[in-house]
Specification:
Structural class: alpha+beta
Low-confidence stretches: none
Mean pLDDT: 86
Order of helices and strands: HHHHHHHEEEHEHEHHHHHH
Strand content: 5-15%
Shape: elongated
Number of helices: 15
Length: 375
Amino acid sequence: MVRPLLPELVDEIIAAVGTVPAYQRPLEGEFGVGVRVGVEEALSHLVLEIEAAGPVPRSDVYHRLGRGEMRAGRSLDALLSAYRLGARVTWRRVAEACAAQGLEPGTLYLLAESIFAYIDVLSAESAEGYALEQTQLAGEVELARRRLVYLLVRDPAPDPEAVQVAAREAGWELPRTLAAVAIQLAAGSRPRTLALPPGALSETVGDVLCAILPDPDAPGRRAQLERAIGPAGLRAGLGTTVAWGDAALSFVRARAALALASASPELLAAPGAALISARDHAGRLLLAADRLLAAEFAATQLAPLAALSPRSSARLRATLAAWLDEQGRLGPAAARLGVHPQTARYRIARLRELFGGAMDDPEQRFWLALALRVS
């Protein structure tokens, strides 16, 4: 009576599993194959045990499912919930079919007891696989915290409920605000003695060590971070302060700040230069966000200088920058350039010939100054 139900039952159970928050994603690739194999194996083996009226040897697929959940960074609760859902769907469909064929109530009761007992056995096997994987990889709390880092900075962002569950498993209270830190690592290395501020989490993400810093604007927090980074001979980018749900955005900006340090050596000469803050250098990051567009913009704005010789172009570019920085004051601009005021006056007259009314238009002066910064 049960065997003919299996093909449709497999699809119905897989659809039900898709309602579990942790599995609300396309059932494709290795993950989708694993779910389907697990469901088909469970149903086929259940029928074999009904036919044999007793235990039948089975594969270790449920151990592997448990280990897979651990490696995927999910709690075991999600898998056990999926098992329970599968049991309820199976019982409902089987009970309807068997009752329609006149199966006695006593046999139905025994079948129901067998289905749920069977799920208990599968759950125990998966729990054992999950625990074995935990032991193999790391201590439970440490691993949960590393998994939480991945969840927080994942793009697209995970379901907030999944993050909250992961935080509880990690024994880490989600803060009102946080900032991500991207710490540069040598190839294949992971600093294990980095004295990060209290409450910080860290895990390697790609080619950087990602640290999650709670309450980053509290007094002394940045100094603590600088003391951890500098003496270790490392370089890091500090992301902007965000709500915990926007940790991925802070991490993107932290990585951009770290890249800015590599592209702008002058930043490393300042005090505390081992830590480059995205908030302190937001303007630079804005200009670097689309380098190709910024270069095109600068080339367009400064096009009148392109026809000059390289030497003349550089001289007038420096003069324009000094004149703009000094808000059109001739004397201070000449002093900044280290030239006679008459020389500066001549160069500025030449700039007026090239740029026309842009030199006297406040908005155009702004764009010229921005183009000079880009270039």
